[in-house]
């Protein structure tokens, strides 16, 4: 059984470990070194995101295998982060999470996110989910998906 639901503060430790492993694994697909976005390996950060109702978890047969950090911005939703434990990459869970996010926020008119320029995996993934690049700078590619 697969579920995508809000995470609680008690999930922060497990989610933090998944975040660290997931972002550190990006070194295999173009990252200049191990690392991730601010707070990616901070239990305190993930606890704060859970307390603020921004943290969601992906459960597969009751086991947390991924998570997302989401921020409402008026009638727009910023997908701040989405990550999956490396052993669960390339199994369709990312696409499932994106569909669930869009379904959970049915009133949202636009979804947006950014990803590093060097990340070949995510820069291939987001267009397949219907996201369009609207801006690029030396560090990031910015994507949007407008629903009508």
What does this structure look like?
29% of the residues are buried. The chain is 29% helix and 34% strand. It has a single domain (2-146), classed as Aminopeptidase. It has helices at residues 12-24, 43-51, 93-104, 120-128; strands at residues 2-6, 55-60, 63-73, 76-84, 110-116, 132-136, 140-146. Helix 1 (12-24) packs across helix 2 (43-51). The chain is built from 4 helices and 7 strands, in the order βααβββαβαββ. By secondary structure, the chain is α+β, with helices and mostly antiparallel strands.
CATH homology superfamily name: Gcn5-related N-acetyltransferase (GNAT)
**Structure classification:** alpha+beta
Elements, N to C (H/E): EHHEEEHEHEE
CATH fold category name:
Aminopeptidase
Strand fraction: 25-35%
What is the oligomeric state here?
single chain
How many runs of DSSP E, i.e. beta strands? Answer: 7
What attributes does this structure have?
148 residues, single chain, 4 helices, alpha+beta, Aminopeptidase
Q: Which helices and strands, and how do they pair?
A:
Blueprint: E1 2-6, H1 12-24, H2 43-51, E2 55-60, E3 63-73, E4 76-84, H3 93-104, E5 110-116, H4 120-128, E6 132-136, E7 140-146
Helix pairs in contact: 1-2
Summarize the structure.
The chain contains 4 helices and 7 strands. With 148 residues, it is of the alpha+beta class.
């Amino acid at each position: 059984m697969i579920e995508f639901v809000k995470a609680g503060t008690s999930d922060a430790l497990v989610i933090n470990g998944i975040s660290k492993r997931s972002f550190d694994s990006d070194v295999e697909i173009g990252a200049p070194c191990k690392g991730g976005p601010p707070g990616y390996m901070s239990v305190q950060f993930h606890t704060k995101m859970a307390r603020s109702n921004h943290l969601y978890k992906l459960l597969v047969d009751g086991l947390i295998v991924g998570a997302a950090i989401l921020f409402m911005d008026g009638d727009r939703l910023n997908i701040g982060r989405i990550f999956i434990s490396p052993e669960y990459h390339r199994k369709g869970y990312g696409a499932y999470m994106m569909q669930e996010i869009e379904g959970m926020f049915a009133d949202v008119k636009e979804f947006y996110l950014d990803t590093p320029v060097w990340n070949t995996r995510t820069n291939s993934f987001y267009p397949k989910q219907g996201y369009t690049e609207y801006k690029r700078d030396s560090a990031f590619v910015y994507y949007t998906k407008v629903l009508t």
